[in-house]
Amino acid sequence: MKAIVTGAAGFIGFHVAKRLASEGFDVIAVDNLNDYYPVALKEARLSALTGDANVQFHRANIADPEQLSDAIEHGADADVIVHLAAQAGVRYSVENPAAYVDANVHGQVAIFERALKMRKRPPVVYASSSSVYGANKKVPFSESDPVDHPVSVYAATKRSAELLAHSYRHVHNLASTGLRFFTVYGPYGRPDMAPWLFTDAIFQGEPIKVYNHGDMQRDFTFIDDIVDGVFGAVNRILTNPGGTAPIYNLGNNKPVALMRFIEIIEEACGRSAIKRFEPMPPADVKCTYADIDLAARDLGFSPSTALEEGIPLFVEWFRGYNGR
Predict the structure, then answer these.
(1) Does some domain include residue 20?
(2) Which residues form the NAD-dependent epimerase/dehydratase domain (predicted)?
């Protein structure tokens, strides 16, 4: 079978593309290698990915229909599109909202329009985010909860992508499934996320910013568990597109207090952090916590990596990648 993976040089996209190739899929990998964070990391991922004979890489901005068409020309008979390309980062969306509308909204439309023109009209498994739950007080967050009050432009664009998917299912009968990822971490992770920022600061002897004075919780989810969930969603939509829910949460189902998270990183690094306590940024939320009953039922999703196991694996990779 053949899969198109967008955002294949990104953190989750890289790992998903590798898994699909290892499972025998021919993978058309697409990414624009934007410079939101250092391109060298994306190139390192691609180097690890494109050594696989089952993977072809094409550079393109998925929000540009012409570039997208050229990039996936060899994937015109694809069986599924795994659309993970996006402008990432909650806090950066405060500074540059247009980048999020372009990648996350225009890009979603471009992918769906391309799917409609392809020979097999492949179903689309796409990335959403736990951020769509905004400042909801009820926990754990369930797919049936209201998501009408996003607290960041990033979250608003991810919710827009979900609504667009609904429209294309209704108007064009295009099968799709959105996956709401909860704070994904692990080897090859993003430099703008807390595991990298804190680990780097600890090794540099620099202070870390502890938001909301440490009174926060996150449902940290290890990358291998996320990849299992994505692969489960791909299998489900290929074998039973009519029996696939429009949205699934993919999280660890075990939120961890921020101060405990810092302790685990300190233990893995073998040294203490210098903490600088700061108020909550306006685009952040206090807690994320995934209800994963639906994903467990339909996708066989069963995350098994505790933070105490996953963070040392990340720190080990970080030290090797950065020569620490």
Answers:
(1) yes
(2) 4-251
| Phi then psi dihedrals of residue 157, to 5 deg | -70, -35
Instruction: Name the residue among 209, 213, 216, 322 with its Cα closest to residue 269.
Output: 322
CA quadruple 163, 57, 42, 219: dihedral sign: positive
Poorest-pLDDT segment among 147-151, 185-189, 225-229, 302-306 = 147-151
Q: Which of 89, 126, 123 is nearest to 107 (CA)?
A: 126
Range of the domain at 239: 2-182+222-251+288-303
Active site residues: 154
Tell me the pLDDT tens digit for each residue of 74-87.
788 999 999 999 99
CB 154 within 8 Å of CB 130: no
Is it the case that residue 261 has pLDDT exceeding 80?
Answer: yes
Q: Are strands 124-129 and 221-222 parallel, antiparallel or unpaired?
A: unpaired
Total domains present in the chain: 1
Q: What number is the average pLDDT over the span 157-180?
A: 97
The separation between CA 310 and the C-alpha centre of its own chain, rounded to angstroms, equals 17
Tell me what pLDDT residue 289 has: 96
The pLDDT value given to residue 227: 98
Residue 108: inside a domain, yes or no?
Answer: yes
Please tell me the distance from the alpha carbon of residue 198 to that of residue 117, in angstroms, as a whole number: 45
292: CATH: 3.40.50.720
pLDDT in the model for residue 88 = 87
Q: What is the structure's pLDDT at 320?
A: 97
Task: Give the Cβ contact number of residue 135 at 10 Å.
Answer: 11
Choose among 221, 231, 248: nearest CA to 310.
221
**Residue 115 falls inside a structural domain:** yes
Residue 211 domain-assigned? no
